[in-house]
Amino acid sequence: MPPALNYRFQLIFIVVELVDERRPVRIISDRQLSEMVSDLRHAIERRKMVLLIGLCKVDYRGRASSTLDYGERLVILKTDGSIQIHRPWDVNPVNWQPPDCIFHVDLVDNSFLRIRAIRKSPREIVDIIFKEVYFSSVLDLVDKGVFSLYASEHDMQRAIMINPELVEDGLRIISYEKPVEPGFIDLYGIDSKGRFVVLELKRRVADRDAIVQLSRYVEEIKRRSPYREVRGILVAPDISRNALTLLKTLHLEFKRLDPKKCAEVLRRKVSEVKLTDFFRGKQ
Amino acid sequence: MPPALNYRFQLIFIVVELVDERRPVRIISDRQLSEMVSDLRHAIERRKMVLLIGLCKVDYRGRASSTLDYGERLVILKTDGSIQIHRPWDVNPVNWQPPDCIFHVDLVDNSFLRIRAIRKSPREIVDIIFKEVYFSSVLDLVDKGVFSLYASEHDMQRAIMINPELVEDGLRIISYEKPVEPGFIDLYGIDSKGRFVVLELKRRVADRDAIVQLSRYVEEIKRRSPYREVRGILVAPDISRNALTLLKTLHLEFKRLDPKKCAEVLRRKVSEVKLTDFFRGKQ
DNA sequence: CTATGCATGTCGATA
DNA sequence: TATCGACGTGCATAG
Q1: A183 interfacial to chain B (CB closer than 8 Å)
Q2: Which of A8, A17, A141, B172 has the most CB atoms less than 10 A away?
Q3: Could A65 and B146 be called an inter-chain contact, meaning their C-beta atoms sit closer than 8 Å?
Q4: Are A62 and A125 in contact (CB under 8 A)?
Q5: Within an 8 Å CB–CB cutoff, is residue B24 touching chain A?
Q6: At A5, is the pLDDT very low, low, confident or very high (cuts 50, 70, 90)?
Q7: Distance between CA B128 and CA B36 in Å, rounded?
Q8: Distance set, CA A7 to CA A10, A12, A13, A14, A182 (Å)
Q9: Residue range B95-138, pLDDT digits in tens
Q10: Helix-strand-coil split of chain B, %, nearest 5
């Protein structure tokens, strides 16, 4: 009797992980329009960024309405559901739709590619009809870079709170964004002689509107404190001629201050804080 | 003696015109950085539109200043000398420079591509440093399409000039953009009872500022014509609650009018004019 | 939603 | 160039 054959099967699974290099730019031009439609729908569903370059016309209906005849343009769909149509010139898009749009991609008359971006509120529609698409691609961009802006009005506010002498010696700031009837006072303080001071900040040349704004706040504070003297100071890098006239008429004051100088002050302040940290904590 | 040889040379020039198909999109990625530099310079000199997609950081110094750390973005250079840097989200570019910039393309540290956009006035600089360029292309777009926008404030003005009864029966418009002390009166007319009428137009919900503006104009006209009654009418699709209160306090009036209805009136007007042309001229 | 004010606002017209 | 006002302003924030 032949010995029983013992077969043992050992199953070995080999797991292969396909590590492909990430392709941030995938070109999908040179395809049949119908293929392109499904590619675009696929990309949009996955909230990819999409570029389209081609011959198109654009219609917009919403708060206003507009038409744009056929021409060659760049269309950008972004991950946040915004869209923009760029002509070869102008920094601003000729048509656009803000974030959170719903995109529809369709083939119309079997030979035109239509991108429709619908915004819910206010109800607005942008229709792009491509007669020809020269190029299109799906982008998979990773952007975690921090964006920092300096010399904003907010920087001016913080700088003056830290260094009130940027405006005037002896000034003490007692509140910021102080709510009053018509809005909020940028900065509010008391001067060396005990007078209330209303500060209105502008990061660029102050115009008449800035003066009107300041005046409203000063009047409100005067109404609240009939027995205190109240000063109104417009703080800006410059003031227009008309605004200066109005300012003088209303017995308000102007203090020239460059927002960049404020950014400088803040930068120095940050360094000081870091140095203090270093000597106190790290040593 | 052998006969003299007479050689005659006739030069025939054959002119060959190389008619190549226009290529609106030329991709210049996958090149050595140094090659790319010269390609980009070449394109920029010829005022071509350029797209760049890659890993970059951005610095801006000018009216304000900003920094943006490394991340993957789309950069667009346009034919008018404007530039914009787009993140994968936001309809607005994170950094930009308006038209008429001067562009510089350089290789820095032998391995980074730098695009520098310089604006003359105000003096501003945007620096883009590419660590990596995934894709770049030169676009040669032709865009002669006419852009038309309807339902703007200007449309409202024209519609009311043609059809004053959009505001009120018996109103006659006597001037537009009438210059007065603080600015320009949108529309100025006389009502059925011979009173002066100052019209302030807004294409969207009117706020307090609109009322302040109207009030200033009305006061100026009253000053000029102390013996005439003067009305001030705010014409807008809607008015904010605060603005309505202020309006009543100042004894001004509000006339609801939709800019789209104005666009409609104009469209009808244009059709009529065309019909008139047809019957008078073309027949 | 409405109201308010900033923005590297942009853009165009005008003095 | 400086000023002024409109804009599909956009955008954030507060109530």
Answers
A1: no
A2: A141
A3: no
A4: yes
A5: yes
A6: very low
A7: 15
A8: 10, 16, 19, 22, 91
A9: 999 999 999 999 999 899 999 999 998 999 999 999 999 999 99
A10: 25, 40, 35
